[in-house]
């Protein structure tokens, strides 16, 4: 049987609150013009309630729309960072931490090649979307652009955004892309120090 300590009880409570806050916010988005509680959702997410919110997204709010894109990017990134923080707190890591990213990439060249390709592809896809926007042609979906960024192309996407001045007015890109990069650095740091 799993033993629960104070941390586990705290996480259960804060995630229940997170799920409830997300549902209330979802209902407010659907039924009112400006009665949202985004700040509360953000705070509860940062306090550890992102798993409950992610569960509510999966159960009740699967349709990706421009209005909910920023909260999705934020909640997913915060969730992944919090899972890694929990793993580190619970002792699931190597004996000593290292920040030798280049040494890690030298030992795992396939990962470096993958990230290089993903960043190049993402850069090109953002550029194509900019060209399509100027020519009033069919656009690339926001979910595709963010998906490529989540899959490892975030740096290429960010460079393309500012080089071509594309998507620089959308918070799910201007805030979301740096947040995705931070999340990916945290994931990389943990993988380097997992002690497998």
TrEMBL record:
The chain crosses the membrane at residues 7-28, 40-60, 72-89, 109-128, 140-163, 175-192. It comes from the Bacteria. Keywords: Membrane, Transmembrane, Transmembrane helix. This is DUF1294 domain-containing protein.
